[in-house]
């Protein structure tokens, strides 16, 4: 690499002025008819050039080897039958050929699985960015072409990009495509899943038109079968039946034919729909304003998910004053509408110190009873009125209440305690500050006391989870038909909120009672929960009211079963940790309860599409004059071609792909040499000046004309 | 000596903690929503408070579902407040300030949902520039955790918890009543004529209308103090009773009445959902 550079001795304007002067002298000489004018002009220009200080610069150049990027796709889809061997063979052969080329290096980039699939584009972009663009002579990707980040593929490359595609021409696959599935659904409202069966690749004729038999099952229930021809979108209605995860598993059997499909791993899908309650509607009926009423209001109004309709009897029908109606702020409540027509819209009805005083008609109570038996919930927080003749127990509702008052009211301080059942029951288990079960702790160590409760006789099938004075039932829970009833035999839970004698977890207790009534899954007595911690490891927790919980039967995706013993982790809590052998749909069951969970992706992204295709690479390959070669046709030979020429073609010995040697070099030094030494310039200028003088004939005596 | 005293105090506290039953009067307060008043040490004021609360309790019993028991005088320095819901505190110049422990209990009472009605009983002279109850009120209430106050606005839930009221007269009806200021961003929501205040009840009400005197009844249920004059005076006494009823309803039901205006909208929504289904 050589170049001319200038290193002027004087600033450029001076040099220019000298050159101008030289030209003017030459012009003047011409005008005067002097014969030596060109010599004079040249002498002046030479002087100007000497002042400009021309020099010759030359660098020392080292040739750099070319780089060939060899991208090797080792993702899971490359493990499909035959592809791994194809890849190995191609990599080996290409490596050997590149090694045989002079001055060429290989950069191998190996690509594994990512949670998001095969990130070929990202890997290629990154590999190109890591190498100097001027040295890259070619990019060779050995892959099935199933990139999940096609938009990340670079638009161009400094050298030809070749794709050596694995797979066989007769590859085919039938897969299940979930086009649309909601992640959440309201309980009891159907949600729509849209799906289709898709055939890809060279589908054998006997399969092509045959419908697939879909097996659909919700939460591991018995499967329903539907026939669905490929290519048609079908809509599937599924109704989440309970809060929490509803697992819908959809699968079809691999079609039977001479050449099997690539994989059956994309023949199934597990869709998890989170069942959620619509806004909970709570009807709170307070029989009279009392100190605990605001406790209920605070609880229910602080819950953003609750619509509260509250209704307090401020004035009983038997009390009148002479105040005109328009000076009063009393509103007649739409009882007929609430208790007869709309009752099914409520998730919970709370009777708070309600006394039967003729405001609600008997048929309303009959209707409430029917409502509970059909799946509603009633919670009674009773004051001393329960032991009176105005007790709710004497209304038609009394038949479903979990306890019957004896008429006696304990008017003394007592400490609420958890019964043995209460320590296991999710409504009361783990309430902070609970007194120890042996009853030996002094007042003040735990909850504050309450001051009044009614004596009741609990229904034999009801659960007594808290007791008060004389170990009489304080909190009684029961199920009626499909509904639930709860009864608190004291109205003084608000004392906990006030901090009397230290108070207690009043909001938490009331919240749990209310939400248990509304069947919140976290508060179910018999529950099996599965926490998937990382990937395939799952922590199973069995909550039960029984003293022991048996081993769980695990049904693996293949249909095999396994037994898993549980260890006690607390009263009524039994846990175990278990690691699944692979992704799929697992069913955990004991004799009472079954739970289905999907571990890992049921159909990993790698196996969504399996038929090899280099379509994603087509624009890049075309832009760089590269080629796509099917490895099933053999491994191509490597040639070198000039930049910008087609780098892929069909030769005598089969297909070839080309790399473009880049002739890249690095400059390791620089020399700077003046064009002429100082004395050289002097001699030149002097010589030209002398030549001009001689040309004008001044050196010889003038001949006589 | 001091250490001994502290030890004695701790021992006494421990004994008090382990005592078998709380004060029966306080149990009654919890059971019957009995109204309570602060004993000031001035027997005339204390008797008036008792008679006043007894009077309003009778009015409540006669007209509403709330049937409070006999009022309870509270010695702030001694009694546990956690069983109370409502405390009437007449302010007088010469009443001694409660001890710091009492203020701790009072603050806890206010925080956990109790309410104090401060009555400076100076509605006739307040604001005229002469000596009034302001200084005494300031002295007594300064250590309390009281939120910013504002005069009760016209749309406050207190004006419609039972009766519809415009003002809150007692024996006097001149002065304004102050309650917790509504939050700055409270605005009238659409379709609801009232401000949507939070459900928290204002922990204090402060006024000077000498309500106890207007409510006061003797054993026979006869008024003990004159209010105004003639028929107009009796009308004012009736209004004072109505204020008392509204006040206790407010203490017990909070913003219940405010929310009732939403009920028709909620029912409408239920009806619409039914149509859709």
Automatic annotation (TrEMBL), chain A:
The keyword Transmembrane helix applies. The chain crosses the membrane at residues 12-30, 678-695. InterPro entries: Class_I_gatase-like. Keywords: Membrane, Transmembrane, Transmembrane helix. This is Membrane protein. It comes from Paracoccus halophilus.
From TrEMBL, chain B:
It comes from the Bacteria. Residues 35-252 form the DUF4159 domain. The keyword tRNA processing does not apply. The keyword NAD does not apply. Residues 1-18 form the signal peptide. Gene3D superfamilies: Domain of unknown function DUF4159 (3.40.50.12140). Keywords: Signal. It holds the Pfam family DUF4159. This is DUF4159 domain-containing protein.
